[in-house]
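Researcher: Hi, I'm a grad student and pretty new to this. My advisor asked me to get structures for two proteins we've been looking at. I'm not sure of the right format, so I'll just paste the first sequence and hope you can take it from there.
Model: That works fine. Here's the first sequence with its structure tokens right after it:
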Amino acid sequence: MSVAEAGFVSKNQIDVMAISTLLDRAVTQHARSLAEIAATSTALLVFLRHAGCTFCREALSDISKSRGEIESRGVRIVLVHMGDIEELDQLLEKNALLDLDRICDPEQELYRAFGLKQGSIAQLYGPKVWWRGFKAGVLSGHGLGKPVADSSQMPGVFLLEQGVIARRYRHRSAADRPDYAGFCSKK
């Protein structure tokens, strides 16, 4: 099955060879390519916004809490971020996630390849986002940080099985809160 047939992109949207090359070029801090990881293991690919984002801080906390359950299913967690490496590492360390595979994508090529777009004003700053931001940042203690990357980039979550996208979740708002362990369960 080709990359386009696997669900990364439609044949009309992008050159399939370009996306294959991108997956080979996208490497973790351990020098493993996303193509290699996706071909050899089930992977939970989590696209983050930026280290200052309250919802990304909450997501890392959620992943930390459900990590044992996710990994017990044989799923490897891979984070994709936009380059705020030092600040992200501090958050990963705080959440006992520093050893997770992560891919730095400052040009947001992977974000675009997986269909993650720039958010609208409502998706980024609507009433739901403000309320959830207050709850997550203040009441739950995840804090409020300053944008350190493209704050308009929308996040998403993908489950890759045998190199194919088995499930996808593209956030409808920055405030969406996926159930990461549930996302990895067999349905």
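Researcher: Oh nice, that was easy. Here's the second one.
Model: And its structure:
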Amino acid sequence: MAGKPQAKHNEELCELLLKNGKFSDWVITSAFYSALHYVEHEIFPCIDGTKSYSNFEEYYSRKHPLGQPSKHAVRKQLVAARIPECSAAYNWLHDNCFNARYNDYDVKPIFATVAKEKLDSLKSKCKK
């Protein structure tokens, strides 16, 4: 499952976890991965110069065959370039997801609420 169906699936999990109130770190994480799939669905397929790319994995492997920079860094660049109105929300979700996953899982509930708001804002700006 990829693209919009995966985005919706992750969004449903985000909503369930937010209602539960116990797993703010996973609310943020599921909101970020939902956003990731929404922006990929919005951007791809795309044309870059004379080349066409059907999805992010194809784009990344052809443009960055050595695996640098990271997929997340490239995705952030694409969002900024192709859907700049989503960039601030996407970057907030990315940064807070990585903080919740790798630095501090004990996230205050207000951050979970903000994550869902950021996801809602980002989603509303995706037209596809």
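Researcher: Is there anything I should tell my advisor about the second?
Model: You could mention this: The mean pLDDT is 96.
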